[in-house]
Every structure is written in C-alpha cells, then in structure tokens.
Design a protein that fits this description.
three-stranded antiparallel sheet
Length: about 230
C-alpha cells in the first residue's frame, strides 16, 4: 500500500510538471498575446491570449518550441505629409507658393489572429517588426489621404479639407487592400494647407506661353541670320 501511494504521488508530481511545461497561457502577461513556434508544428494556428486556457504539447520536447509575445496595445501616431506641386518653385509668385502640408492623427489595432496571419506570411518576425508594419500602414494612409485631398482641391477651387467626411476618404483610399490585417480605429485631419490650384494653373499657362514665345523669337532670329549668311 505504501509503495502504491508513493507511485501515485510520483505520478501526480510528474503530471503537474508536464502540465506546467505545456501551459502557455501562464507565460503571457495581461497586455500581451503569444504565438507558439515549434520545430515539429511550425507556427501555431491559434494565438495565446490572456484569460483563455492554452496548453501546447510541443513544449514537452526539449528545445522544440518557443513562445513569441507581442504587446497588444493600440497603435497611435501623428503623421505629416507635405510637398510641392510639380515645378511649384518655378511658378511661385511673390508670397504665394504651391506647397502643401497635411497633418493627421491615426489609430489602429491588430487582432491576435491577425498577428498569427502576419507571422505566417513572413510580414513580421517580432514585436519591432509589428510596430514597423503599423507605422508603414500609417505612412501609407497619410500619403493616400493627401493625394485624395489634393485631387479634390484641383477639381473644386472652393474645396476645404475640413469639410470632407472621414468615410469618403477611407472609401477612396481603400487601405484594407494593402493592409488587410489592421483595424483602423481613429483617423482625423488636424491641419491642412492646400495650394491655390487656380493660380497655379494660371501661372503654369503664363510660363508655358512665355517659353513658347521665346522659342518662336529664337527661331525667327536663327532664320534671319541664316538668310543673311546665304545672301552674302
């Protein structure tokens, strides 16, 4: 009987040790999500999230598995996109210039399962890569939104950036085509400087006219010089 109790105790201890070795949920903090990598199974299909029981047998094999963790806090960023219309410096007149500048606040999140998807697609490897990925998404949003605003301003001289609806911008730029894994939680235009497209077009036409006139005068002068040479 004594030997049986000892054997039962050893088996119980062994079972507890096995349980804790494979219990991955306990290794993830409350603000994190984990993904299991193993030599035998590759990247796990299911993320390890706080509050949900998770046990992985892959950890029972020494050196076979690792748990990679990612912080799941929302990503918030302030982005600025600026530039100048083509040949804007050439067409500038006095204090008027043809530069543009847009400022945005952008917020986004990535779900635990989308982190798994990004890992499987080799788009990220660790938390730094995830932050870089989201920062790249924010840069793309700022660029596409600015191009949309500039196009609207060119089409309508009375256009004002503050009057545009967020839904219209997001529907136009279709950020989910390039970044389907992100969930855009916040987007706002905090400042906008739009060039005067009407004046820009006028100056562009004037410069083109002056260049054409200069070319015609030069051609006429060359023809006269050629004629004088032939008459001598």
């Amino acid at each position: 009987m004594k030997k049986f109790l000892i054997s039962l105790f050893i088996a119980a201890v062994f079972s507890v040790v096995i349980f804790f070795i494979g219990w991955t949920q306990i290794k993830v903090k409350s603000d994190q999500v984990g993904v299991v990598f193993s030599k035998t199974s590759g990247i796990s299909e299911d993320a390890v999230v706080p509050g949900k029981f998770s046990w992985n047998w892959q950890f029972l094999l020494p050196g076979n598995a690792q748990l990679r963790t990612f912080t799941i806090k929302p990503y918030n960023s302030a982005k600025v996109y600026s530039g100048e219309l083509p040949s804007g410096g050439l067409f500038s007149s006095g204090s008027e210039n043809f530069g543009y500048r847009f400022s945005y606040t952008i917020g986004m999140t990535v779900s635990p399962q989308q982190i798994v998807a990004l890992l499987k697609q080799n788009k990220i490897y660790d938390e730094k890569d995830l932050n870089d990925y989201m920062n790249g998404a924010a840069d793309t949003i700022a660029q596409l939104a600015s191009e949309y605003l500039l196009k609207k301003a060119e089409e309508n001289p009375s256009f004002r950036a503050e009057s545009v609806r967020r839904e219209d911008i997001l529907r136009s730029i279709r950020i989910y085509n390039d970044y389907p894994e992100i969930d855009l939680t916040a987007f706002a235009i905090t400042d906008a400087k739009i060039p005067d497209f009407k004046l820009y077009s006028k100056m562009q036409t004037q410069v083109t006219f002056n260049q054409d006139k200069l070319f015609q005068n030069q051609t006429t002068s060359d023809e006269q010089n050629e004629s004088e040479i032939l008459s001598e």
